[in-house]
Every structure is written in structure tokens, then in C-alpha cells.
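quick one before i forget lol
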Amino acid sequence: MTVNALLNPQELLAKLTVLFVEDDEEIRQQMVQFLSRRFKQVRVACNGKQGLAAFREEKPDIILSDILMPEMDGLSMIRAIRDEDHHIPIIVLTAYNEEQYLLRSIELGIDRYLLKPVNTKSLSEALEKIVSNLWQRKEREEADSYLRLLMDIHPNLLLTTSDDQVVYLNRAFLHRLEVDQLGDFLSNPTGLGELLLDQHGTPLSQAGGLWLHRLEELAQNAPLVYLKNPTQPDEAPLALVVECRQMTPPHCQLFTFADVSAIEGQLKHLEHMAFTDTLTGLANRAMGQKSLTKEINRCQRYNRTFSVILLDVDHFKKVNDTYGHEVGDQVLQGLAGLLQNTVRRSDMVVRWGGEEFLVVLPESSFQDARMIAEKLRSNVAAHTFSTVEHITCSFGVAQFDQTLGMQSLVAKADAALYLAKERGRNRVEPI
């Protein structure tokens, strides 16, 4: 609990300065006596022009003002003050209960509208209500200022939002964006949605809906985003782990971005080693299984289908026995390149084991897969390999349906491959 929370409204008023603007000398003297017993300081002006000058010089905490005054009326003075300060509490004291004055006061954001002669009880109640709100706002501002100080000394990139609007970026974030002042960024906050990318390289602003919602979704599910350099678009983007925390008041959030670019590079290298066949450079069996599982899940979710081709080099043992394992490895490398160059970019060629290869064909029907397998078969048969010159392969084709899992789908393709071997090799058999 803060010190201010322990004070009553009268004690809080005693810490503040009030500006009273009134052209009637008698009323001015009476009100100054009333206000002096309650406020730390009372500043007085006789018209709107003096009141505006006193506001700019004294920076009071509260303003009380008449409306009809010479040189500059009260509402004109208040309009000029509101252009410079949207929050300072203002109470209008007037003898005129006309609708036009009331409506204009509402438009200017007046906190209270009291008729003369002023009821001191009503004025006291209005002041006490205002001062409570004022101290709450001051305490929030102090807390926000302290939070921003903590954010600015933090090495990570930090961002705060309120009601789906960017409120603050810390110095580390501004430095990365090559922006000197927060205002320079806030003038075009949607630009950050273009610079932040998801794991597929898609700007968050293009994901549909508000880009901050997409950022929150990523923070909850796949907390890795990428930040482009706004002045060096060809530079590799930073890899950032993002965390989202709810703050008070409600609808406020703190996003924390930790740079993991170096770690990500190491992980990508390790992932490449873990999921790549060292001999052929193709995806290895572990990666193939991972790809199959992902494709099956996608097809089950969206009621789609895909196909696989399992192929095997005919009489490969004879190649190794005749020419040696080094030549056998060269044949596998050449075959891997030939397969990779024949299939579509969306397809995946996997070294399934030994001289056996699996081709995953997304969005491919049974007939599509048969045509691709036949093209692969003829290309292999026509290709001239070094040393051995010619080899052939046998192919088994299977299409996914909703009843199949990964193992049963591959087993189905393996049964088709076995049938191709039985029927003379160098052929395509579907099941």
C-alpha cells in the first residue's frame, strides 16, 4: 500500500496547488478564503488570458474557472489548456445554466460543472472526488515511469500493449529498429507487424486480424518469431523467443523477446545432422517418419489425402560384390540426385534404409503417384551411372486413407514393392 493510499482526501488536497480564475472580485476573495484552507497553494487569475498564462507558468494540479470573463472567456481558456494537457482536472463555476455552455463544457472534458452561488458542500465533495482520482492517476504514472525505467535497462527486447495498441518499446527494441524516440515508432506502429515474422517467414501483419493477436498466439503455442532489420532487409533476421505476460490493469500485456539467434544456428546444425543421411544428403529415416506423421495429421484434420512411393535398387548386392562398396555408395549418391531432380519441390525423398528410398507426395492421388513412380522408373533405367553404367529399381505405390497410420501405410507400399520384385523387377506396382 502506498503512502497516499493512507491519506484521506482532505490531506491529499493539502499537498496540491489550485488555479482559480474569476473576474468578479468579491467572489474571488470569498473563494480564495475557502480554497486557502484546503490547498497547499492557491493561484489566482482575473480572466482567461491571465489564467492561461498562470497555467503555463505555475503548472497547477487543479483548475477552477468562471465562464464569462473579459479578454478571454473560460471555455476558450480551457480549450487552449486541453490542447496542452488532456488530464488536468477542471471545475467550471458559472451563474449560467444554459444548455450551450453545458454541452461545450462536456466537449472540452470538464470534470465538474457547478452553478453559482457555489454550494461549498457540493464543491468540497467534487474536490475530494477529483483529488482521489488525481492521486490514483499520479501513482499509476509513477508506477509506469518506474516500469519503463526497468524496461530500458533490460537487455532483452520488451514491448507493452494496452487494448491492442502498442504503448511502449524499451531502448533495446528501439535500438534494434534504429529509432531514436518512441514517438517515431508510435507514429507508424503497424510497421512492426511487417518486421516480425513467423516460422514460415510470413509477416505477422499478413496473418489476418490484428498482428498483436497473432503475436500472442505464437507466444502461447510456438514461441519463436523473427525480427527483420528495417534498414538491412537482406540481413538474416534475429531469432527471438517471445513470452507474453498479462499485466494490471486488464487488457495490458508485456511481451519479452530473447535473442536466440546463435543458439538457433547451433540447433539447426544439430537438426540437420540428426535428420540428414550423411551419404546421400537426403532426409534420413527419422526425418521421413517425422514428415509422414505430420502429413497424416494434416490429412486427417482437413480430410485430405497423399501418396507414398517405396523403391528399391534391383540386385544391389551384386553391385557391391562385383564393384565394391565404394562404387555401391556412388550408385546410391547418383540415384539420390536423380530422384531429387525428378520429383516436385513439394515432395520429399527419404533414404529409408540401405538401397531403399521413400518418396512422400503431398496432395497426390493414387493415379498421380503411379505416374510419378513410372517417370522415376524410366529415368533410372535410362540413366548412365559411372562404373556400373545402368541399374534398375522396383517401385511400390500406396495412397493414404483415414484408416491408415504411418506403419500401415508404409507396410502397404512395401507389399506393393515386394509384388514388383516378384513380377520381374524394374516395374511399378500399386496397391
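fyi Residues 276-430 form a domain with the Alpha-Beta Plaits fold (CATH 3.30.70.270).
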